[in-house]
Amino acid sequence: MDEKKNIDRLFQEKFKDYEVFPDASAWKNIEKQLMKKKKRRIIPLWLRFAGAAAILLLLISTGFWFFDQRDNTTEQPNETIITDTDSKKEIKEVAPLVKEKNAITFEDTETGGEEEIISKTISKNNSQNLKNNVVNNPTIEKVQAKVTPEENIALSGVEKEKEDNDRMPLIEKPTKIDVIKEVDIIREKINTEKTAIAQEKIVNEPTTTKTDIQAEIEKTTTVVSAEITNKWSVGPSMAPVYYNTLGNGSPIDPALANNKKNSDGSVSYGLKVNYKLSDKFSLQSGINTLELGFTTQNVATLVSSSLLDGSNTNINTNVDGASVTALSTVAQNSETLNQRSSFDASGSLDQSLSYVEVPLEAKYNILQKKLGVNIIGGFSTYFLYQNKVSVTSFGKTSTLGEASNINSLNFSGNLGVDFDYDISKKLYINISPMFKYQFNTFSKNSGGFKPYYLGVYTGLNFRF
Amino acid sequence: MSLKKLINKCKLKDKKAQSQIYQLFSGKLFALCLKYSRNYQEAQDNLQNGFITIFDKIEQYDFRGSFEGWLKRIIINTALQTYREKNVLNLVTEEIPEEVEIEIDQDEEISLDFLLKLIQELPNRYRLVFNLYVLDGYAHKEIAGMLSISEGTSKSNLSRARVILRDKIELNQSQIKKNEAF
């Protein structure tokens, strides 16, 4: 008996109420994925927290910087500086700038003319660092304490001079708004780069493969799930920094080429972000504030209303219409100089450059036991936000102005070693001594000065 | 606990509720997966991905329309996505034979497993259209949109699918008859 049946009807009837219960492994896999998704949601919290706090701090510092700038413009003669005992205080303290104008005249018997030196005395604290630190709020003692012993002797000289000054602890947080914008742009660029890297990443072998077939299928699926969990880590970092030059010479004035120079130790603070590309490789970036300063010994400066012998000094003064010449007092007979009573033969010139640094580095793992050992290489971009030159003479330090030959954007090549230690599954600390050699710090007349700095970066990192 | 309560709990990512929803619907949804996939493994994969999407999107479900329908649509879309990437859905339009009739013997029951196997053996483009139209009730216009093909292509894919299925069934039927004869 034949019954013609429409094929559609045949299938429809057969598959009506068709039910098949899947293997138990199906639910297990679903659960696993759901767990992973949950973990991913927690990331933005941390990131947002860190990011928001960092931006908040940047904004606050901008506020302070503007506050500074406003004070800078009020100049009143013969104001006395409010003295304060500084010594060890928390960096968070801020105090307004106060100025004093002193007019010193001296007679230059050789040229027969009289020149008026106008100097401003501005108090300066050696810890001028922006603090982006979110989680930890360490009290930082005098920066010099962090510097290696050999430098201590040299620096204590500088320190003493500064301590002798009547000064006010001052926290300058001079971040320009456009620097912040640039920083944000760079940050975004880094983020998009990172997401691009993440998307390009090959899907690794799943960690729970039961059968080979399953593994093959999972490879061809479009689900891009991070097989290495917790690829991101973020955290604050700080580093004591020691600045020096590979070549001799002075970027301030060729006359100072052979003068002794000492690094002003400082501390660099920032935020570090690390993304794990593979078991061995990770990429890191972040943002730091960095102050590089050094002091040139045996310098005397002349601020005059006219160019003195065609000055080669790369300093722009704060005073309108005046120019600065730096002289080395090394060759001079100090007695002769002292007779003039105008030059301090042991005076010094300090140059300080403050940057916002955005590093981009690759980290390669060599050893991973309880303590991990890695090599780090990469480069950093620097945005200059402060450039200061000050002179110390007869125990008093005053700001001259700024160096005229500094690039506002420059780069460095970085190389270092990193040691990390897991405190918990989500938390690890790291110590990374790094060597960073700066390129194109100076736009011209670097005088053979090839700056580099060494920093020992310590940080706390949160994985997510 | 009512289904509505269960769904609301799922919206809050309640693990137990999610597990229960899975228990309630995985049977039907896995059957659906089997029809759209080429084999058991692929079907399981599809089911897993489908449920992830379900639990992800459940907060958007606003209780309008049947929940089961909503679930099925997600599973189907997940299945289609696998093939979307493979880009094997296009076919040149040919003549469209309409109703295809097959002969079956009343006594000879054709097993469901056999029919499932036939469906799974169909080339992707035919299988998807056949399922969507015949088993899940979509119109050619909708299918065209879902598979990014023309309506004509959808119709001809369906016809060809029917032809293949009919031929295989008839072949099978005649083989059974032959065996019986001995």
Descriptive report:
The complex is a heterodimer of chains A (464) and B (182). The radius of gyration of chain A is 30 Å and the shape is elongated. Chain A has helices at 7-15, 24-73, 149-164, 177-200, 212-220, 334-340; strands at residues 2-6, 99-107, 114-122, 232-245, 261-264, 266-276, 281-297, 299-304, 315-317, 323-328, 348-368, 371-393, 396-403, 409-422, 427-439, 451-463. Helix content of chain A is 25%, strand content 38%. The N and C termini of chain A lie far apart (69 Å). Chain A has an eight-stranded antiparallel barrel with strand order 4-6-7-11-12-14-15-16. In chain A, strands 2-3 form a two-stranded antiparallel ribbon. A two-stranded antiparallel sheet of chain A has the order 8-10. In chain B, helix 1 (3-11) packs across helix 2, helix 2 (15-36) packs across helix 3 and helix 7 packs across helix 8 (151-181). By secondary structure, chain B is mainly α.
Short description:
The complex is a heterodimer of chains A (464) and B (182). Chain A is α+β, with helices and mostly antiparallel strands.
Q: Which sheet architecture does the biggest sheet of chain A show?
A: 8 strands, antiparallel, barrel
Overall pLDDT level of chain B: 86
Which residue ranges of chain A are poorly predicted, with pLDDT under 50 across at least 5 consecutive positions? 74-175, 196-210, 220-227
Task: Determine Rg of chain B (CA atoms, Å).
Answer: 19 Å
Q: What kind of oligomer do you see?
A: heterodimer
**Spatial ordering of strands, largest sheet of chain A:** 4-6-7-11-12-14-15-16
Query: Which regions of chain B contain 5 or more consecutive residues with pLDDT less than 50?
Result: none
The backbone outline of chain A, from C-alpha atoms, is: elongated
- Termini separation of chain B comes to 58 Å
Q: Count helical runs of chain B.
A: 8
Instruction: Please bin the fraction of helical residues of chain A.
Output: 10-25%
- The share of residues in helices of chain B is over 70%
Which sheet architecture does the biggest sheet of chain B show? none
What amount of the residues of chain B lies in strands? under 5%
Shape of chain B: globular
Number of helices of chain A: 6
- In whole angstroms, how far apart are the ends of chain A? 69 Å
What is the succession of H and E elements of chain A? EHHEEHHHEEEEEEEHEEEEEE
| Number of DSSP strand runs of chain B | 1
